Amino acid sequence: MSKPVLYSYFRSSCAWRVRIALNIKGIEYEYKAVNLIKDGGMQRKEEYIAVNPMQMVPAFVVDGATLTQSIPIMEYLEEKYPSPAILPKDSLQRAKVREICEIIASGIQPIQNLVVLQKVQKLSSEEEKAEWAKFWINKGFIALEKLLEKCSGQYCVGDTVTMADMCLVPQVGNAKRFKVDMSPFPLISKINDELEKLEEFQKASPFKQPDCPEDLKGM
C-alpha cells in the first residue's frame, strides 16, 4: 500500500498543522513541495490546480482521494487513526478545541496569509505588509489569550495535545515572523513553549522540511 502524499510548502502554517498531526499519529507520508513563491508560485500551475483547484496548500492524497483544507484533513486523521486522540472525548471540550481551531484558521491566519498580502494593493512595501499582518494577529491573539484563560492546562485545552495546539504553534510562528510583540500574551507563549519541546512538533518545523532554503535551516 502506497504512502499518503502531503503537498506542502515549508512555511505554510496550514500545511504545518497537518505535518504535526501526521507526526502525532505516527503516519509515514511522502512530502511533495509546492513552492508558493518561485516563478509566480507552483500552486498556480496547471499540474497543481488539477490536485487542488483552490491553488493552496496543503493537499493530502490518501486511498485515491484528495483532501484539502487543514482542519478537515486533521479530522479525517482522527477518525481514521483514533489513537492517539487529538480530540477530547468530552463533547464540550471537543467543541472548545474546534472553537480555538476556527479562531486561528478562520479568524486570524487567512487575513494575514500570502495570497491576501499579495492582493491588497495599498500594501506597497514589505513594512506595510508586516504591519497589516501584525494588526490581525494581535487582534486575534487578544481574544485567544482570554479564551485560553478559561480552558487551558499544560496545553490549549487541558493537559493533552489536541488539534487546537496544532493550530496554535504555526500561528505563533507567523507572529514571530512578523515580529508581533508577544509580551501581552503570556499564556499563548507558555503553551507554545511547552509544545515546542515535543519531538512531533519539532519535526514539523518549517526549518526542518526538505524544501526549506539552506540559509534558514536550523533556525
Automatic annotation (TrEMBL):
One of its GO terms (cellular component) is mitochondrion. Pfam families: GST_C_3 (PF14497), GST_N_2 (PF13409). It is found in: Cytoplasm. CDD domains: GST_C_Zeta, GST_N_Zeta. Its cofactor is glutathione. Pathway: Amino-acid degradation; L-phenylalanine degradation; acetoacetate and fumarate from L-phenylalanine: step 5/6. Residues 90-214 form the GST C-terminal domain. Signal peptide: none annotated. The keyword Translocase does not apply. It comes from the Eukaryota. Residues 2-85 form the GST N-terminal domain. The keyword Transmembrane helix does not apply. Coiled coil: none annotated. One of its GO terms (molecular function) is maleylacetoacetate isomerase activity. Keywords: Cytoplasm, Isomerase, Phenylalanine catabolism, Transferase, Tyrosine catabolism. It catalyses: RX + glutathione = an S-substituted glutathione + a halide anion + H(+); 4-maleylacetoacetate = 4-fumarylacetoacetate. Belongs to the GST superfamily. Zeta family. NCBIfam families: maiA. This is Maleylacetoacetate isomerase. It comes from Magallana gigas (Pacific oyster).
